[in-house]
Sequence to fold (89 residues):
Amino acid sequence: MAGGWARDGAVNEQIEASVSDELARLKARRQPQGESLTHCAECEEPIPEARRAALPGVKLCIDCMRERDSTFQARGGINRRGSKDSQLK
Fold:
């Protein structure tokens, strides 16, 4: 159900490509590796054993990780339609 000069299914292909790109970007994010720390790398509070077992390679306590996650800023996506208005930014 594409409109204008686009072929049928073009809009769905754009959506699927955008979702695939974002999933690939998230998978490429660096995950904790190695042995978990017993104390937080930022505040030196003990990291609970259950957290260390659940997340191998964890370096931060729950409070410090929550604070870091709350400051996360999502980046803008790619406009695959290529409209003139989107190119003027």
